[in-house]
Structure to design on (398 residues):
């Protein structure tokens, strides 16, 4: 039996232009974004300008992480401590973490078989908890019917914040993911679609929110060097009122990221070719079901989810270890305990609002997940699919 020969920890190198610019920044020693001599431009300000243009938003604020971007977007919007904030229950731990950090109270909402938010439950949760804010994670790149979500948010007076950690480079009806809410937050952590180790980007058209975000990141009185922020006077008006939470992005990270932005389209094409090859192979496997995508969503297949429908829950550890023994790390969202990056709403014991989420529980119980490093080839994906299929058939009862 063939083992998978490559490592799932592989990463693409930083583009040469990024390494070159980062080397210049390091040689100058001027890594802080506001340490600028006359005539010098700040790489972080340029990144913000370029990224705002990419998503089609007026303002962008670069942060030290995606979770921090979510935190300050919520800080800027929530009227008081204890404000209920809706989020799809199928999300990653930084989302309830950011809501908590901003003084909000997480109200989890059901996820359906499309792995996106259940709009009926969204209405119910909003009405029951009198909630007016929603952090919508396009989890693992699955984009909800944004027409339906936008209509419901408008009807119920809900402010939408998009968590686009898995949809940088994706589109909904030909508009970039992140252009549909009041604000959107992206991550540039190494496992996402562009890589600076750590980093986050907040975009919005709301000048008040952007001004607050610039100040929350810790811009001292240097915010006039920003190129995608509201006018200086607008930021200045608020400066004494907004605490400095110190979460800036530095020039070095921005230098690494700028050349990656122009690679996003090509990365999406490659990721989707890998995705389709693995999806095609798994579609032939007995006992595997694959999620459907909305036709209006142009996704980025940087990871793949599937349901091992044919297995009893107690057989999952055996299935996962058979895959692992052949070099394929499959994650399982139904795991009773959190593993690696994979946790689910039942693991976040600090959440104070209890909602029975039978649909989400059912959807996650047999849901498996595999990351697709961009360095892999379509042939690699065919072998990964074969290993998953073999392991599943070996685990299943006769
Ligand atoms: C990675 C991630 C974040 C936060 O990003 P960090 O940069 O790691 O803070 C938020 N939401 C989701 C769904 C993520 O995967």
């Amino acid at each position: 039996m063939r083992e998978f020969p490559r490592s799932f920890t592989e990463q693409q190198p930083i583009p040469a232009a990024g390494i070159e610019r980062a080397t210049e920044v390091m040689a100058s020693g001027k890594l802080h974004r506001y340490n600028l001599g006359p005539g010098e431009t700040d790489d972080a300000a340029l990144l913000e300008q370029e990224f705002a243009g990419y998503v089609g938003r007026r303002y962008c604020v670069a942060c030290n992480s995606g979770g921090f971007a979510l935190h300050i977007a919520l800080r800027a919007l929530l009227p008081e401590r204890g404000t209920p904030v809706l989020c799809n229950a199928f999300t990653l731990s930084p989302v309830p973490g950011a809501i908590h950090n901003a003084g909000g109270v997480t109200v989890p909402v059901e996820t359906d078989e499309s792995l996106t938010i259940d709009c009926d439950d969204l209405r119910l949760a909003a009405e029951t908890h009198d909630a007016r804010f929603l952090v919508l994670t396009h989890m693992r790149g699955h984009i909800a019917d944004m027409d339906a979500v936008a209509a419901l948010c408008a009807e119920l007076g809900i402010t939408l914040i998009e968590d686009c950690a898995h949809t940088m480079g994706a589109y909904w009806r030909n508009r970039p993911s992140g252009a549909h809410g009041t604000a959107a937050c992206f991550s540039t952590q190494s496992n996402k679609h562009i890589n600076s180790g750590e980093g986050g980007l907040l975009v919005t058209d709301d000048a008040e929110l952007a001004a607050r975000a610039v100040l929350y990141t810790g811009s001292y009185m240097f915010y006039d060097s920003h190129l995608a922020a509201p006018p200086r006077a607008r930021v200045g008006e608020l400066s004494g009122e907004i605490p400095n939470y110190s979460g800036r992005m530095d020039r070095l990270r921005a230098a690494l990221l700028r050349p990656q932005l122009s690679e996003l389209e090509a990365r999406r094409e490659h990721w989707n070719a890998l995705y389709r090859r693995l999806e095609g192979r798994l579609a032939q496997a007995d006992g595997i079901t694959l999620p459907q995508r909305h036709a209006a969503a142009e996704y980025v297949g940087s990871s793949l989810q599937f349901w091992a429908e044919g297995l009893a829950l107690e057989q999952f550890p055996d299935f996962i270890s058979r895959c692992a023994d052949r070099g394929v790390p499959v994650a399982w969202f139904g795991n009773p305990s959190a593993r690696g990056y994979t946790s689910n709403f039942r693991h976040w014991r600090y959440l104070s609002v209890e909602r029975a989420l039978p649909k989400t529980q059912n959807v996650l119980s047999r849901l498996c997940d595999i990351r697709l490093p961009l360095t892999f080839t379509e042939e690699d994906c065919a072998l990964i699919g074969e290993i998953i299929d073999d392991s599943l058939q070996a685990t299943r009862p006769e």
